[in-house]
Amino acid sequence: MPQNYVPIFIFVAVVGVLIPITLLAAKLIRPENPNRTKLMPYECGIDPIDSARGRYTVRYYIIAILFVVFDVETIFLFPWAVKFKALGIFGLFEMLIFLGILIVGYIWIWGKGALEWV
Amino acid sequence: MLDYITSYLSSNTTPGQAGNVFWALVYIMIVFGGISVAVMAMNWLERKALAHFQIRLGPMRVGPHGLLQPIADAIKLMTKEDIIPAEADKFVFWIAPLIILCASFAIYIVVPFGPTHAITDLNIGILFMLGVSSLSVLGVVMAGWASNSHYPLIGALRSSAQMVSYEVAMGLAVVSAIVMTSLHGLGPYGVGVGTSGTGTLSMIGIVQAQQEQHVWFLFKFFPLGFIAFGIFAIAMVAETNRAPFDLPEAESELTAGFHTEYSGLRWSLFMLGEYAAMIAVSSIAVTLWLGGWYRPFPNTLTGDTWDLVFSLFPGLTFLALAAIAFVGVRRMPKHPYFRVQTIGLAGFGAVLGLIGLILFVPPVRDRIQDIYWFIAKVAGFMYLYIWYRATFPRYRFDQLMKVGWKVLLPIGIGVLILTAILGVVL
User: Fold this and answer.
1) Is residue A118 part of a domain?
2) Is the pTM of this model over 0.80?
3) Which of A18, B115, B357, B370 has a CA that sits 20 to 30 A from residue B90's CA?
């Protein structure tokens, strides 16, 4: 039923009104006197020596890739989960095959050490 | 116009289903206000409970027993200077807290506080919830990257890695609950008598499925439902970056994690978002496994007497709170310095008692019940969050990843497969 989705747009509109009001109200009452030291990145009182946006460990990237794989898998499971009783044994085996392929991949990445955090 | 407004009251559905824009707006405002108040109460409760866990007193100065402390904090944060670091990406820095806030508040669009008390009932409610709640990862990453400082960046990367890792386990646990909705038999092991064979993703539908099957999904296929619930309960603590999984905000290593550079109102938006998300995921857990708005034992303890007994609970709860307040009044020091606080606490107790008495009036009593049981269950989770924080030491990051990927994920897949096999075979 499409009208069920109308409140989402109302919600967006309410947020679009409330948040600017809050931010504006806070802007009006708060003090504003920045200086150079205040605007430095906080590093426990020591001057930062370089920009933070440098290289970073590749581990996080691997985690992100794995997340995409497994999250998409979960999304594919949802339609089956809803109709699962009607699909019966056939649907169950289809899903077991699908999960089986993923489990093989999972065991492989485990063996490769992608899940280790050194 | 007036007809349009009153016509909803007899429709017996959520505003979204009735297509009533006015009541949808009212419900949204109630949810916004209610959640903000709940976050404030939670803030006070957490500081008080943690303090008592550690044999301290906690806030005591602002108002009786520090009851007005959250309001004082809110005013303080509003009037604080807002610092945007010189080399920060201004726009991203500005929008990141708003994304987190909106993502955690948007979950409430589908949370069913009662059969008719939800903003709307989407037929893909649980998918909507999963989708929207994972948006907050974006806010975290944006906040950390935009700050252009080392602590926030490390905190944001850790936080995003942690959130996406546990989201996988969370999704699998949710799927196994959805599988249970498509069964139609009675009791923990009852399966498929005269079934249409269709489950549901709608949040209200999930709760009604538990009612039809005469069992909370927590006890369905015991212990499978229990394990799935356990996975969700662990994953939701990690999702909301709370102790013992509060690596992104590990004070001793990263000062404040991804929101180190935020101050004043923007910082409070992060806090509001975090607490709102905690309440939201707890509501999801209650909906999926703990029977949502239904009172305990809706099928075994039936009859007018039991209905009456359970409908007295809301009033009794408020009377008990009032009694606690009055005990506090008795124990206040008898010194003129404390007179205002004592009167304030007595007044607070009187208000609570009055609310309790109003909740005994029959029409109010019947309407408030669903909401009361839902909120009572969520409140239990909120207390658990505080309890975890007081009890468990923080995980190390490699341990955290190990729990997410090597423990929860395989157990989640196993539970899902076993649930499906039991559902088809039995």
Assistant:
1) no
2) yes
3) A18
